[in-house]
Each structure stands twice: as C-alpha cells, then as structure tokens.
Design the sequence.
C-alpha cells in the first residue's frame, strides 16, 4: 500500500512566497559583491582587449599603406641613376640635329623617348621630379652645391640644376643639387612647395 506523504506522518512542504528570503548555505552575501566586482573587472579587461585589437588592426593598416607608398624607395633611388645618365647623354648631344647623320638622329630620338618613358614610369609609381630652376632656394628640397654671381637674378634663387631632385609620395627621395645666385636683390623666402 502506498503511503500518501500529506496524509500520514511527513508534513507537507509549504509553498515559498516571493517575498520570503531563503538562506542558501555556503553562499554568504559578500560573494554576490565579489562576483559583481569580478564581472566589472572582466568587462573592463574585455573593453581594453577590444580597444587593443582595434589599435593593432589600425597600425597594421597604416603599415601596409606606408609600405605600399614607400616600399619601392630603394629601387627608385637605384633607377634615378639611370635617369641621371640618360639626362647626361641628352645634354651632351648637339642642340641642332638638322646637320647630323639620319641614323644618329634616330638614336637621339630613341634616347629622348626612353628618357620620357622612364620619367612617366617613375611618376606612375609616385616618384616626381622637383622643379628647382628659377625657384627660391628651399633647404627641404635643394642642396646648394655652389653660389653663382648673377646680379640679374634675386639672391637665393636656384639658377643651375646639377642633379635633379625627386619626391616619392610627397616625401623627399633625393634633394636637387643646385647652384644658387648670390647677386641681385634678395629673393622671397621659400615656401614648402617644391
């Protein structure tokens, strides 16, 4: 015979009202505060870790962009010597090509075309030539190699370009080596333009 717990010897359990407080053995009230403090600490650590991850991602993107812009810098410096040699070859040629042999004239035209193509390739990759002649001397972009006496030009003006200068993505790749006028009235101060 099955015994009914409410009918016989054992007392029936009383329903718990929501307002009643139950003491759970082994869980003092201080544990709740400790858990809340741990939760706040973990949230702080999570936010810091997320911020650090975002900073690392941003720095990596900046590094990739910098490498994309300036990664060819060493190669570009090496190619500049080729451009210099082509420029020297062109400057050594006679200015009047009418009286020379047609075969030599074709070589001259070929060297000129090669020099233009090289300059175009450099510009496509962000390497631009610094325009120096006739501009006020600017130590950021020019390296003075000599002073030239010329009273017709304001002092401090670039009157001769020995070796052209170049920028890569707006940053100096090689300064222009120039001759600067030391005669005439003073030139206006150089701006930060090339």
Sequence:
């Amino acid at each position: 015979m099955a015994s009914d717990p409410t009918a016989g010897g054992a007392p029936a359990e009383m329903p718990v009202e929501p307002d009643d407080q139950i003491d759970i053995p082994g869980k003092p009230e201080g544990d709740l505060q400790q858990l809340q403090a741990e939760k706040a600490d973990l949230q702080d650590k999570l936010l810091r870790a997320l911020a650090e991850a975002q900073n690392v991602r941003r720095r990596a993107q900046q590094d990739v962009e910098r490498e994309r812009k300036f990664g060819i810098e060493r190669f570009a410096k090496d190619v500049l010597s080729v451009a210099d040699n082509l420029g020297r070859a062109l400057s050594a040629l006679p200015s009047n090509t009418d009286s020379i042999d047609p075969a030599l004239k074709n070589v001259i035209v070929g060297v000129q075309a090669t020099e233009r193509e090289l300059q175009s390739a450099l510009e496509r990759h962000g390497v631009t030539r610094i325009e120096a002649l006739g501009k006020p001397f600017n130590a950021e972009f020019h390296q003075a190699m000599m002073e030239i006496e010329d009273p017709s030009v304001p002092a401090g003006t670039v009157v001769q370009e020995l070796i052209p200068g170049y920028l890569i993505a707006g940053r100096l790749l090689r300064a222009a080596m120039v001759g600067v006028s030391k005669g005439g009235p003073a030139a206006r101060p150089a701006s930060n333009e090339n």
Remarks:
- Residues 72-125 form one domain.
- The mean pLDDT is 82.
